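The aim of this short unit is practical: by the end, you should be able to scan a pair of folded records and say something sensible about each. We start with the first protein, listed as its amino acid sequence and then its structure tokens.
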Amino acid sequence: MGTQAITPEDDIYTQDGTTDYQKKPANKNTTGTWKACPYILGNECCERLAYYGMGANLVNYLKVQLNQHNVTAINNVSNWSGTCYITPLLGAFLADAYLGRYWTIAIFSIIYVMGMTLLTLSASVPGIRPSCDAEGVCHPKTIQSVVAFIALYTIALGTGGIKPCVSAFGADQFDDTDEEEKKHKSSFFNWFYFTINIGALIAASVLVYIQTHVGWSWGFGIPAAAMAIAVVSFFSGTRLYRNQKPGGSPLTRIGQVIIASFRKFHVKVPSDKSLLYETADEESVVQGSRKLDHTETLSFFDKAAVETDLDNAKGMVDSWKLCTVTQVEELKSIIRLLPIWATGIIFATVYGQMGTLFVVQGGSMDAHMGPKFEIPSASLSIFDTISVLFWVPVYDRLIVPFARKFTGHKNGFTQLQRIGIGLFISIFAMVVAGVLEVVRLGIVRRNNYYDHKQIPMSIFWQVPQYFIIGCAEVFANIGQLEFFYEQAPDAMRSLCSALSLITGALGSYLSTLLVTVVTDVTTRGGKPGWIPDNLNRGHVHYFFFLLAVLSVVNLIVFIFIARWYTYKKTVGSLG
């Protein structure tokens, strides 16, 4: 069963604009499906344009305008990017527990606009904008750096309410009880990611060029305006949306199952699982959620659903002593997701190199297109975007029908197979990046270019590594989006979307940790280290090969985990 349509005329329509899974609306043809999606996709396109338009070139902004060294700028970008993927936990909790996805997106979008506006002011207004000398060297005051970082972390807070909710909110527009609508849900995730990359394409090409050649005030002002448009787009579709009712605090329900299980540590679980406690009526005790069937794994937590004489002594159920099967299965679903979730961290670390080391590597290469035009190194991420825009329709229209003939699966591959293919492809991105650096350093050594800022090797040799990561994204990232939505309990879908996003945060933090440790170890004894300010005297290829090895190990672990994964089952489903 899926999220149902609502209109003000329906007798199930509630004051907060939400509805339950179990109730059928009188008229669902006026809301949801692809009719509502243009407003959601428009919001996401503009929001991603704003995010990437500001974030794609952020490492250069910190190096130039805030006068930071390579390692400091890389780590600051990684930490900020990581925070952008941690704050979705807050947004997801509020969405699932209290606000619903609609109001969470609306409120946090406004916070996002405030952050973008402050960042634009910090790059435009004299006094809070760093002053630069005739040679282009900037000398920021402490307060100017503080204002810039306040703006950045306000943006990180704003994105926390959008990231975990938009994809889930879009998927909510398709009813799982309607076979015709259900077929479109998997395609929605493909085109949702396609839309993200439309915004990223404009950001990596037009906006990065404006930031480099026109100025940071325009370079940040345009993304701020795009975010304002995103808010308008989202509110414009309000009457067409289907909204799932928030189910109360998921953390409380999880805590109840854990405590009830340990309270009944010595209670034996009956072999007949139909004896476990569940509400007798059709509806789940969890608002906005379907009942879940019992699964055999993690049987310790079944103790929470075992009825004892003490549970019935006072005639009322204490949820801290007795939980329904659905509550227990919610916790089991989350626990089963965690190993799959963990394998996404290394992939996120590989993906994060596009905004850090790839940019730094490109900065040491010839960026000229013709005698006068010079492409910013951060703009090379456009080829990642082009790769995604190429592979999404190829995957949706060609690969899926072709794979379906051999696998018999309606989506061509299972979600876990899709993720695994993406992890495999990502290995080659790091290998190619490492080989390119070996070749580049060979040119440096042969021609004694050690002190040259840029060497006569075209930056476009980086295109393959960006293109490979884009292909890996279409498999791994979209597969994760769909997997965490489908396998999440109905009333925890925002939280599980946030959980998948946290791999991005941990990937960024892991990148920071690896860079810090590698720098500390390899600079001992006065050596320049693997990642010095002058890459011509470094060994960045060692770092890329290190990530390739970690990716191989990660893929092996993923395959082992995926083989043993148990999919959730809703009551009445076939599996």
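Turning to the second protein, read its sequence before its tokens, just as you did above.
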Amino acid sequence: MAGTPAAMVLPLFFSPLNTTRRSFPPFPAIYSHRRELQEKSSSVANAHMRLYDDLLTNGYYTTRLMIGTPPQKFALIVDTGSTVTYVPCSSCEQCGNHQDPRFQPDMSSTYEPVRCRTDCTCDADDKQCTYERQYAEMSSSSGVLGEDLVSFGIESDLEPQRAVFGCETSETGDLFNQHADGIMGLGRGQLSIMDQLVDKGVINDSFSLCYGGMDIGGGSMVLGGIPLPPDMVFARSDPVRSPYYNIDLKGIVVLGKKLDISPSVFDGKHGTVLDSGTTFAYLPKDAFIAFRDAMMDKIPLKQIPGPDPNYRDICFSGAGSDVSQLSKFFPEVDMLFGDGQILKLSPENYLFRHSKVHGAYCLGVFQNGNDLTTLLGGIIARNTLVIYDRRNERIGFWKTNCSELWERLKFIGAPSPAPLTSENSYTSEIPSPALSPSQAQNYSLPAQYRVGVITFDISLSVEYSDMEPYVKEFTELIANELEVDISQVHLMNFTSAGNGTLIKCAIFPSRSGFISNKAALGIISRLTEHRLQLPANFGDYSLVEWNIEPSKRSWWQVHLLGFVIGVAIVMMISFLVVVVWYFWRQKLGAAGAYRHVDTAFAEQELQPL
């Protein structure tokens, strides 16, 4: 890869379940050639961002993008089947309640509407270009097109780039109900964020996705070229064959035996499509029946009903909770590509956990109705680095632990965090020590920055069942080691991670409403330098990631209680002063009041001497 542009890497985040999303929007243009970039290393940059959550809980992955000046942050579904990036607009009258506030064009000094022209569909007033996208699960999104600065987070050394995006004015179906704000379109098309960045020459014509495993989730996304692992498996992807990212799948093997189906089955309609916006895998009827029968014949476990009686899921019980042991009960599955290369799938690439029966799993492969397209969703790519090498018209697969991608892949020229120079240029994403723990040692925060909460994930080498009784003790230990009050420590989540436990912790501010920069940097320093002293019964620990979020409370919110108490005290003192003054005046008036000589008054008894 010498002489080629470097990569831009974005972390992916995971969000609410959407198992039926199949993003097949209209495709404006199909290109028979690939763009050729001038190979000038100075003209490109890298960006590192994370993926969050897990496939079963949420159904899709999201990443964080910042749009506008100052930046407005959004959680966007990473979708290789969509060609438009869009977020809810402040003027939207038919948008659901999502994770973040809607985009406010008037609050961005760099926002510009895309003016109406001959090559776009215009709004009713013929002033601004519009977009509309409809999806296979009958949801839709429509709105106007705008252009603004798009930022990729503090872990990126890629400068904010101007890009066209959709400002939603209407959404229906799953898009209306989902927790995520919108979509980040990575498909082929003029409005795709990939195409726009490639046209600017800031990245190579390639991007990658790496999804975490069954119990871990998270992962990373890479925009741009990266060093290729030597044992990566490639499949040809023909942009002329269909506008979607397709591969030349020729067959499926279950436990060493190839399914008795014609290779042409996988070439119907759009062919075999990879779609990160889809949760599971969907096969044409003949392929699904052959796969289902082979799996049921090879799995030596009791078949049980699925978690939802409305669906005829194929589920099995008795496999236990340890994902690393699933290969003892479920067969290995191979995908055969046209050039003879083989992609091996482990059980987590075609199974999902039964939500109601412990130790039970269900097939995450379904029949694609009467559609002849083979659709491979995110489940196929768990713990697999997938490189969409658009320039060379191929897609690569490399089995890896995606939560440890940076250490295992060892990116060439991985960027250091961009410096924080001003309040306007700052975003709330802080570099994660999972990428480079040493980066935090010289890290600083702007003096005006107010830290609202510090979150971090710790992996312990003890099993979840052994850890659960010591939650309170663990909380006290964290508070003691980080030198904060125990009331500030919140354990947000406990997750079983193979033979270990993954814990998400948060440090909240005390009564002041924010954590001082000095205290925040002290906490981060102790975490990243592995200075926590935990007892032996907690096993070994490792820091997975950390993040600093700004305080969202204004000066009035922080000091409101004190202000109210102060006003109340002043009013009470004033009231007491008025009362005392009133009675004093009454008493003074009674003692020295003038009485007429003829005025009658009660006789008073003489007091004894």
